[in-house]
Amino acid sequence: MRRIFASMMMVIVVAGSSFAQDKVIDQIVAVVGGNIILKSDIENMNINQQAQGITTEGDMKCEILEDFLVNKLLVAEAELDSTITVTPSQVNQQMDNQMQMYLSHFGTESAVEAYFKKPMATIRSEMREAIGDQLYSQQMRSKIVGDVTVTPSEVRYYYRNLSKDQIPTIPTQYEYAQITVHPKVDIEEENRVKAKLREIKKRIENGSSFAAMAVIYSEGPSAKDGGVIAYSGRGQLDPEYAAAAFNLKGDQVSNVVKSSFGYHIIQLVDKQGGKVSTRHILMKPKVSVEAKEEAYNRLDSMANMIRRNELQFEQAAAMFSYDKNTRNNGGIAINPNNMSSKFSVEDFDGETSKIITTMNVNEISEPFETLDPENQQTIYKVVKLINKIDSHKADMQNDYQTLADLYLAKKKEDVLQEWISQKQSQTYIRIDNTYANCNFKFDNWIK
Prior knowledge:
The relative contact order is 0.13. The protein has 13 helices and 14 strands. By secondary structure, the chain is α+β, with helices and mostly antiparallel strands. The protein is flat and about 75 Å long. The protein folds into 3 domains: 11-148 and 408-435, Porin chaperone SurA, peptide-binding domain (Triger factor/SurA peptide-binding fold), CATH 1.10.4030.10; 170-184 and 288-393, Chitinase A, domain 3 (Roll), CATH 3.10.50.40; 187-283, Chitinase A, domain 3, CATH 3.10.50.40. Helices cover 43% and strands 18% of the residues.
């Protein structure tokens, strides 16, 4: 944001391209120390949040202003802290993620430009500084609350002092084990996909646009964005993909690369530090009907053996399951959202949800087709429902971790609020009278 002396209040006038055009007035609506907040900042963020489908029961613009006010306090402190840094690659990655979200929502770049009434280059330019501030404030916020912890005795005290209405309701939860099988892909189909990608590579090397080819042919989620994958480190990418991507130079296109997702050709977009931004075209070999039937029948026979007590579920998972994350744990699935064995309905994919929510404890399902959550490949699985915990009010015995997480969040919020209150008293703050009636979350913005 633009810097000014704390005592200055002014109106910025931006002339149009022609003297006869109306002048666009951008008013300073708040000053926090040496930082200003413009009316256009509020308006742009309001449009941004509408584009993301964000709504509120309160006054959206008042809430946006307070977010900016808190942000400015955090950014000012972060800029004085030598341990906090924001790199251009971090800003670019965040900006790419934001743009991909816009493109996913609106469909095309022209639709994004039409909504914001600005060319894409201007949208990106205006986003850059705001994202930099956001990254600074996030790091400062994390540092302020980084040492906050809770003890079991604190959680117990917190729980005992909750009113009946304050005790959270835990939705119905399920614990299950699984055995998965990947249908075998015919070698002829794999060769067909590789040949097609080699053909596309030749077309690109002869002048065709990689981005256009990605839109037409890629089967990955980034296809609509021209195949772009935002800045990623080696650990964030499939190992085979990463090995090829980090070896590319210039606008070179890789040979065909096999990953757990399928087959790719890759083009380097940019490399910064230990991260790369790439374009890729992903094609997935198709599974034949015969291969699907074979996978189904294999699992069906296995499930029947388990039901007849000829084979233990845990043994079958260890010996035959393709899922490396569960086969050595008796097939028990772990929820990646909370790293526990408990899942609520919204944690399941659609097919698994339809099966598990109709099962009885210890029942073994029929085989069913779904997608591997890690690579979106077709798989077949059977599941065993181990436990079902009906919806209930949280209690210390069964829901300690949920209550601990709630109290930790509250404790961090209290620490942050105390920090903000302290900084408010030490910092010059002035807010335009048009926002005098805002119902702010934090007191003492208006002095």
